[in-house]
Amino acid sequence: MDDTTANNPVDRLIIVCCHAIWLGGPSNGNDEAEWAIEPFQRGETPTFIAHIKAGLEVLSQEPSSLLVFSGHVSQVTSLEGNGMLMSLQRAYEAGSDDKVRGGELY
User: Fold this and answer.
1) From start to end of 2-75, where are the E strands?
2) Are 24 and 95 in contact, with CB atoms under 8 Å apart?
3) Residues 75, 80: Cα–Cα separation, whole Å
4) pTM for the whole structure
5) In angstroms, rounded to a whole number, what is the distance separating the alpha carbons of residues 74 and 99?
6) Which whole number is the average pLDDT over 67-89?
7) Which residues contact 50 (CB under 8 A, 6 or more apart)?
8) How far apart are CA 79 and CA 73, in angstroms?
């Protein structure tokens, strides 16, 4: 445990359930083409952004909270058919969350 954790114990958990992966891009998620989504999710990306912003807003008001984005690639077959599986896994595991933390989406 470092000094920051010792001085600011976490007493709340904020979980944002993620149902898609934002791949990054100039529109900061406002262009649906920047998202890895299934056909049935078309039109839902504004909701995903709203959930992310809501989690960040609660975190800003509750400094003793921990914000966790939950989810992972779940439709391997459909992603493999698009030749996107490896890049989507890498985006999720090493990029999308960094972009949110860096303020690109917020």
Assistant:
1) 12-17, 21-22, 35-36, 65-70
2) yes
3) 9
4) 0.63
5) 21
6) 58
7) none
8) 9
